[in-house]
Design brief:
single chain; mainly alpha; Methane Monooxygenase Hydroxylase, Chain G, domain 1; 2 domains; two-stranded antiparallel ribbon; 2 strands; 68% helix
């Protein structure tokens, strides 16, 4: 699951705005220009280090390490747990599950989390297999909508779905109809297993590596 939007650019923009505001408003409140200059230098250094070593995800890594970060991790875990549950039901092998920006960063994966599957051997699949993969790929988005009312992740899932159906030879109308049907089926299926979904997500979130805890744990 990748979170939408360029958060690195947003973080940098907010930081630059803050320094600029301090430079303008600082003298009016008696703030020394040296303090503003130092703050600007530290901000630039922090942004440079974040881009170089953390891929611009330093803010997420730090936020998830704080006490309130567990809520963000749980939402990611809901998404990934749903992929797992549906993949298990559809007999789709799962390679690994990553929850949290720190876990993804260590694995060299973009985003806040990921579920990696054993990919099909052929791009051209029978309709039954396309339906099976559609249910697996929409599961994370459907789970977020079920628990939180909306989905903020799943850009990679939608792209993969588009590629699968684009290579299938089926027309766009059929592909869209089948994906809507997959969503309905998965929503009904997950509703009947919501407790299992949330319990698995809680376990994934609680055991996810976080900055500080993962460094302290062998």
């Amino acid at each position: 699951m990748a979170m939408p939007g360029d958060r690195g650019t947003l973080t940098a923009g907010v930081a630059v705005f803050g320094v600029s505001l301090a430079a303008v408003a600082g003298p009016a409140v008696g703030l020394s220009p040296w303090v503003t200059t130092l703050a600007a230098g530290l901000t630039l250094a922090a942004l440079t280090a974040d881009a170089a070593f953390l891929g611009g995800r330093g803010g997420h890594v730090v936020a998830e390490a704080l006490p309130g970060g567990l809520a963000r991790l749980r939402r990611i875990a809901i998404h990934e747990a749903a992929h797992n549950l549906v993949a298990q039901a559809e007999a789709v092998p799962v390679r690994r599950v990553l929850v949290g920006s720190w876990a993804a960063l260590q694995a060299g994966v973009n985003g806040g989390g990921s579920t990696e599957f054993e990919l099909p051997v052929s791009a051209k699949m029978p309709l039954a297999d396309l339906r099976r993969w559609s249910r697996v790929l929409v599961a994370g988005m459907v789970a977020e909508e079920l628990i939180y009312g909306t989905s903020v992740g799943g850009a990679d899932d939608r792209a993969q779905l588009g590629r699968l159906w684009g290579l299938s030879g089926h027309d766009v109308v059929t592909a869209q109809r089948e994906q809507r049907q997959a969503r309905r089926e998965v929503k009904t299926w997950l509703k009947g297993r919501q407790q299992e979904l949330e319990e698995r997500a809680d376990h994934l979130a609680q055991s996810a590596p976080r900055l500080g805890r993962s460094l302290a744990t062998p």
